[in-house]
Amino acid sequence: MNGQMMQQPLLISMLLVHAERHHAEQEIVTRRCEGDIHRTTYKQLAQRSRRLAKALAQLGVQDGDVVGTLAWNTDRHMELYYAVSGSGAVLHTLNPRLHPEQLCWIAAHAEDQVLCFDLTFLPLVEAVAAKLTKVKHFVLMTDRAHMPKESKIPDLLCYEELIEGQDDGFIWPRFDENRASSLCYTSGTTGNPKGVLYSHRSTVLHTYAAALPDALNCSAREVILPVVPMFHVNAWGLPYIACMTGAKLVFPGPGLDGKSLHELFESERVTVSAGVPTVWQGLLAHVEANGLSFSTMRRTIIGGSACPPAMMRAFQEKYAVEVLHAWGMTELSPLGTVCTFKPSQLDYSKEERYAVQAKQGRAIFGIDMKVVDEEGKELAWDGKTSGELLVRGPWVVGDYLKGEGGNPLVDGWFPTGDVAHIDAAGFMQITDRAKDVIKSGGEWIGSIDLENIAMAHPAVAMAACVAARHPKWDERPLLIVVKKPGAEVTREALLQFYEGKIAKWWTPDDVVFVDAIPLGATGKMQKNKLREQFQDHLLQAAPSA
Amino acid sequence: MNGQMMQQPLLISMLLVHAERHHAEQEIVTRRCEGDIHRTTYKQLAQRSRRLAKALAQLGVQDGDVVGTLAWNTDRHMELYYAVSGSGAVLHTLNPRLHPEQLCWIAAHAEDQVLCFDLTFLPLVEAVAAKLTKVKHFVLMTDRAHMPKESKIPDLLCYEELIEGQDDGFIWPRFDENRASSLCYTSGTTGNPKGVLYSHRSTVLHTYAAALPDALNCSAREVILPVVPMFHVNAWGLPYIACMTGAKLVFPGPGLDGKSLHELFESERVTVSAGVPTVWQGLLAHVEANGLSFSTMRRTIIGGSACPPAMMRAFQEKYAVEVLHAWGMTELSPLGTVCTFKPSQLDYSKEERYAVQAKQGRAIFGIDMKVVDEEGKELAWDGKTSGELLVRGPWVVGDYLKGEGGNPLVDGWFPTGDVAHIDAAGFMQITDRAKDVIKSGGEWIGSIDLENIAMAHPAVAMAACVAARHPKWDERPLLIVVKKPGAEVTREALLQFYEGKIAKWWTPDDVVFVDAIPLGATGKMQKNKLREQFQDHLLQAAPSA
Question: What is the pTM of this model?
Answer without folding.
Answer: 0.91
